[in-house]
Amino acid sequence: MLLQKQKRFDWLVQMLVVVGSVLVVIGATNLRTVEGRPHRILLDTDVDTDDLFGLLYILKLNRSEFELEAVTVNANAWTNPGHAVHQIYDILYMMGRDDVAVGVGGEGGIKEDGTILPNGTTTAGGCRYRQAIPVGARGRLDIDSNFGLRKSFLPQVIHSGIPVTLVPLDATNTIPISQNFFEALEKSQNTYEAQYVFQSLKMACDTWFDKQFYTSYFMWDSFTAGVAVSIMRNNLNNPNGENEFAEMEYMNITVITSNEPYGVTDGSNPFFDGLKVPKFNLDKNGVHSGHVQKGLRDPFCIGENGKGKCRDGYTDEVTGSEAVSVLVATKAKPNQDPQSPLNREFFVSFLEAIIVSPTGWANAATIDVIYDLLHMMGRDDIPVGLGDVFATNQSDPIFPAVGGCKYQQAIPHGNGGLLDSDTLYGLARDLPRSLRRYTTENSLEHGAPKDTDHPELRQPLALEVCETLVKTLEPGSKITILTNGPLTNLAKMISSKKNTVSLIQDVYIVGGHISSNDKDKGNVFTIPSNEYAEFNMFLDPLAAKAVFESSLNITLIPLGIQREVGSFSKILERMRRKKKTPEALFVRRLLSRLYRLQQLHHRYHHMQTFLGEILGAVLLAGDSHLNQTFQAKPIKVYAEGVESRDGQLLIDENQRKLVRVLDSVNPQAYYNLFVDRLSDSNQSAILGSFEEQVKFWRKPPN
Q1: Neighbours of 668 (CB within 10 A)
Q2: What PANTHER family would the database entry show (predicted)?
Q3: Cα–Cα nearest to 432, from 695, 145, 250
Q4: How many CB atoms lie under 10 A from the CB of residue 65?
Q5: I want to staple 539 with a disulfide (CB 3.0 to 4.6 A). Which of 177, 210, 211, 486 is the partner?
Q6: What are φ and ψ of residue 507, in 5° steps?
Q7: Alpha-helix runs per DSSP H in 132-219
């Protein structure tokens, strides 16, 4: 899209908002700082790869002029907060800036009168707009891991009245990565930050979706940071935002939230529908009063040519009460040196800053935690497969990299949810670092546009790992499967045309809830209307239905029996009395933290759920002391697309197939067996922690 000086043009935007001399959201101001004091900067970022370049650029500026005080993570875009916050910590550590405060975005909702609510028990709202961002490869998975480079390289409001400077996509689209810039960066690798930037760019280039990387990858947020800093540097008597890198212009704009025809009520717009007075006193015939896009494939938004026509989230130049005067960057300035191979002035500044060293439950990327845990136990021989990122039938049929979050939205994104799962409640970085990690390395053989530098490091998919395992079985041998989450991967195996299912002997499923009475509730606490489902079944009910209706021999460990063995105090007391192997110490720390959090804050009331899921592993090992008993029951999974009932298990006598359901177990024997196994020095950890690993690294060779 090209910037047009017309009444209508469409932008995707990045905002610069400044309060006093504090920079909020990559930006700048023409307000004066106290003489002799540096500009104090707060950077708000979604931690996309280009944002990391912008962060490094700011960190390389003279601190007597520009002081980065804090970084806040936007948890509603291209990264998940548990991984994003670690990327920020790692870069700050690499640059010797552990003094910079780091915060993660909240989850509170917004009331109809505009009041911002504090964080509640769950995440407020669904993923209406965020679902447009791919979740797996070339999406949040790659950005969470920065294409797999994070672990391998690093050392472990527009209407608020605040002055706004806008650097829209139209402006950043005028500064694509040129081949000359790429080659200049490659030749200048004398600092760690330059190496990290180049490796990130190269991996993005090698895995780009087409052969037009140099015309379609832009200096988005790093360019924004450069414009902001330049405006601040020249802020005396500079009302028009003059700077070295971009041409600026004042425009009256607003963010579009609906589509024409305006002023027509069709039931899609919560700001107007059924209200005598629109919310936030919006204009009844203004740009916010039309149809609101209801999903990725909203029929209203698909034109006759099959292309999208809706403009929710775009920015328009408008007049009237809905307009806000904003200083806008319109395009990148050319290099002042016509003889330079670098065609943009900002390229020169970026290379100077980056290259010259002065004094100076879980998301897909959590697969790296699994690699680290296996490394700790000396089991790097165990293959790890990456499963589907969407529940069954939730990916978009035309562009499957994106999809809905009908069930996934039930998991809180922050405290007590994905943030804590992704970081293992803050303990993930205490694990020894595995050499294995998720990476976007790929090959032509597996559908990539070209071979990357190390295609042999490609991350295998879950189905591929299962197929490889089956091929290695001795004649007559079969495998047993234990599932501790949604049944998406298992359903995928069943639907594949491989002969995998016939080689599965038993499946142990931890999850599901068979209610005995009206008061016997499930645990999907974030969906109050669904009282009797269990999370693992609810998160992919169609997959659960496919598995339970298959020919597999299923043993179910339901929620009711898990609750009988969910005492933190009893298991922790036993752990305190036992021998301290590295794995026992780590588990004790984790369980102690879960128990403490449960006692301290209402957002952690569900922590005993995770303790009960250990039962599947103990039962699989088999021990007569458990005194376990089973009942065969005809089970039906409700999966009809009804949020208030999906995932519920029903006893249906019309079902021919019987499922073996764990009916009782000896809790005391369970606690003892679990603790005894962890405390056994046989097959114990080869490395106890990252700290121990660092000491090993520092030990001089013999």
Answers
A1: 13
A2: INOSINE-URIDINE PREFERRING NUCLEOSIDE HYDROLASE FAMILY PROTEIN (PTHR46692), NUCLEOSIDE HYDROLASE 3-RELATED (PTHR46692:SF1)
A3: 695
A4: 13
A5: 486
A6: -125, 125
A7: 140-144, 149-153, 169-172, 179-186, 192-206, 213-216
CA dihedral 519→525→527→529, nearest 10 degrees, is 10
Summarised one tens digit per residue, pLDDT across range 52-87 is 777 777 777 778 887 888 888 777 666 777 777 778
Name the burial class of residue 534, with classes exposed (0-12), middle (13-18) and buried (19+) by CB atoms within 10 angstroms of its CB: buried
Q: Which domain holds residue 594?
A: 461-698
- For the question of whether the overall pTM of this predicted structure is more than 0.70, the answer is yes
In a domain, 418, yes or no: no
439: left (phi over 0), alpha (psi -120 to 50) or beta: beta
The residue that leads in pLDDT, 27 or 112, is 112
- Answer whether 419's CB lies under 8 Å from 81's CB: yes
pLDDT tens, position by position, 439-467: 888 888 887 778 888 888 888 878 888 88
Whether the predicted pLDDT of 291 surpasses 60:
yes
pLDDT at 200 over 80: no
Residue 572 lies in a domain: yes
The residues near 232 (Cβ < 8 Å, ≥ 6 apart) are: 23, 28, 29, 33, 39, 66
In a domain, 570, yes or no: yes
Contacts of 54 by beta carbon, 8 Å cutoff, 6+ apart: 26, 43, 45, 221, 222, 223, 224, 225, 226
Any domain includes 529: yes
Count of domains forming the chain: 1
Residues comprising the chain, all counted:
702
Which CATH number fits the domain that encloses residue 532? 3.90.245.10
